[in-house]
Amino acid sequence: MKVLLVNPNRYKSPPVPPIGLEYIAGSLEKEGHKAEIVDLCFSEDWRKDIDCAVTSFRPDVSGITVRNVDSVLYHVNEFFLDEIKDIVNHVKSRYGLTVIIGGTGICINSEGILDYLNADFAIAGPGENTTNELLNEIKNSRSTKKIYNGKFLTNDPCPRRPFKINYKRYFDSGGIAGFETHKGCSSSCIYCLEANSKVSFKRIKDVIAEIKGFVDMGYNHFHLCDSEFNENLDYSIEFCTALINSGMDIKWAVYMKPGNSNKKLFRLLRDSGVYLVTLSADSYQKHPVYWSDIEKFITDAKSEGLKVVVDFLTGFPYEDEKKVAQCFDILKKIQPDSVGVNTYIRLYKSLHITTIINKDSTLKNHLFGNTDDSSFIKPVFYNHISNEKLQQLINGDALFRIEGLEKRVNYSRVGT
Description:
Blueprint: E1 2-7, H1 19-30, E2 34-39, H2 46-57, E3 61-65, H3 81-95, E4 98-102, H4 110-117, E5 121-124, H5 130-139, E6 147-149, H6 167-172, E7 177-179, E8 182-183, E9 200-201, H7 204-217, E10 221-224, H8 233-245, E11 251-256, H9 263-271, E12 274-282, H10 288-303, E13 307-313, H11 321-334, E14 338-342, E15 345-346, H12 352-358, E16 367-369, E17 380-382, H13 387-394, E18 400-402, H14 410-413
Parallel strand pairs: 1-2, 1-3, 3-4, 4-5, 5-6, 7-10, 10-11, 11-12, 12-13, 13-14, 14-18
Antiparallel strand pairs: 8-9, 15-17, 16-17
């Protein structure tokens, strides 16, 4: 079958290449299908671009990725689904194509988003293998359900197709290339959709080969797409060692979590080209050991010459300003390079924090956004510490930065 893959993500702060579609295209072609990608990120007329792609390629099916439902920032929020819905309707009504939706955004509420977008099928989770299974069912008229759960097969590497994307345009516009080493996360954060999800590691040689492909194309700047690189310390050390041994001269930025680290890892990260580590941290019901882990993490990383930025989420239900001030005092003592503070927590239907709030009517007084949307597809945020109060707690300390007031990410803020 011929599948037209569509990237509807036109958010450019920064522009993010559709890595998921590169994997899907590779998986489809590996199984004998034909795949083309129409990337609308820089499109000036998306209808015209889709029309041209359909006319020239004449697909049987369209696959549309939903990377994000919205920009997740309260003050400068952008909701993406309405434009994606227009794209779905255009493809279906004008060309009669079956539309499959997938991408990380589907997982917030797969049934609700399927209905909202008026698509035919949805794949929730990794789609590299599941897309082929669904196409076979469509071809043989055997599809009996609308939502399919994706699965990732670690021993069945999926070839990537970066040449189907104009990476020069992304780099020229402030974007960089991405790669991933694993899927899933074993942490139990009450605000995260990936919490307690199955962890599957990619074969290191396959990831190294992906990176080499970009280096051969002339690109050497990367960010890691994993939720947290140090999910497994041994794997992380082995990966960095392999990257160093490859001899490639790259620079990359990485997200990590407290724990699962040591000086050896940070030394290897530095030697493999890492210039920035973003440490994800929060204040929800933390044991003192948590803060000890953070202190050790930052101290070890900085001793190896790495820049460390902390993404700090705070202001959870039942936390008072005194608790937040105590956390700030700890971070002042540790002294990372910068701390981005966020007190507006995006809620999703399946999250534990949403359950907590729904059980206490007093907490609902602190909801902002589309509070009448019980599906939580449209943005709803919890906040009880205003930016004005946050400014008072920060008290002019340049270490801290309030997140959500600008559309930037850490690798564009912090130079290499």
